[in-house]
Write a structure and sequence with these properties.
Blueprint lengths: L18 H11 L5 E4 L14 E4 L14 H17 L8
Parallel strand pairs: 1-2
């Protein structure tokens, strides 16, 4: 999905995947009018109560390579995981 607009990601903890929790998160973290892409999880429909557009794509067992609209988020999550795994030994925690 490259329509020339910048893509953003924000990792924010939520208390759960309920309609109420997602609506509260959307009101505090998203700009009204933004488009929210989701993987079909029902609770994300609550972003519309915060004035956001909701674009649902049901994954249904497909691979990430089959879903170009999620390629960027998979890249972000992969980079985050690599960063955390790479820095973990530096903390010298007991296993």
């Amino acid at each position: 999905m490259d329509d020339g607009r910048p893509l953003r990601t924000q990792l924010t903890p939520v208390p759960g995947f309920s309609l109420k929790a997602i609506e509260q998160w959307a009101r505090s973290c998203l700009a009204p009018g933004c488009t929210v892409l989701c993987d079909g999880l029902t609770c994300f429909a609550a972003v519309t109560a915060a004035g956001c557009l909701h674009q649902r794509t049901v994954i249904a067992g497909r691979k990430p390579r089959d879903l170009p609209e999620f390629q960027w988020v998979n890249t972000v999550l992969g980079n985050l995981k690599t960063s955390l795994v790479g820095s973990y030994p530096a903390f010298n925690f007991r296993k």
